[in-house]
Design brief:
Elements (H helix, E strand, L loop, with lengths): L1 H33 L10 H55 L6 H24 L1 E2 L2 E2 L13 E3 L9 E3 L7 H4 L9 H54 L3 H36 L3
Antiparallel strand pairs: 1-2, 3-4
Helix pairs in contact: 1-6, 2-3, 2-5
Length: 280
Amino acid sequence: MAMLVVDKASGLGLNQKINERQKALSKIHEKMGTGKRINRAQDDASGLAVAKLLESMSRGYKANAINIGDAMSALNIGEGATQGISDMLNRMYELSVQASSDTLNSDNRKALNMEFQQLKQEIDRQTKSTQFNTQDLLSGQSALSDGTGKFQVGPNAGGPNQIDVAKSDLRPEALGIMNMDILSREGAAAAMNGISQARETVIETRVNFGVQYNRLEHAYNNNENMNINTTAALQLVESLDFAQAAMDKAREDILNQSALLAQRNFQDVSRNSMLALLGN
């Protein structure tokens, strides 16, 4: 009877070992299937915490890349529109110079003024219709043009992760050309002075678009560098060493096969012991 109790206890211990080997093999198969060393907290609790932090940062950098790309697109649209406005102001200046000469009569000046007013209206229209994502870029009436806007370029909240959007208001009233006409020599002379100042404002706005675009390019490059290195760090933390995993699998396969063989041998010995006790 004592031998039967020993055999039963030994059998249970052997079954436990077999279960342990099979669980170990199952974990190795899971890791090799996902390619990750850490699939759940029990694999490496501290490693999982680090991996999730790095993953969150990487996702933030990817979102930043979209934000910066959108900002650069908006600035390109705004800068392109300022070129057109600058060209129209140059033409208005030419018309003003022509109208300032008394070689022209009132009918001549009236004809010149008609083109002058049409150009002014087109400047007004373009400043109110040049948009990115339904937001005005040149009217001073939205976050992208009133000087209060921010471009989010970093993974965290706060000033170091944002770039201020420069004010850009090129409406005729903001340029000081709203009430201009060139119907008289005096009016033409005043228009020449006013348009010269307006062109300086347009040039300043265009320069702002350019320097902000250049800054965003540097921000984009830095963001990509941080994302690449953060992703590399994440892979080091959670990626599986397949060579080591293959060695672990081979070891567990051998141990599992040995345990199964031992179980079969144990069953044969136990059966023989039982037959011996029964006198067979």
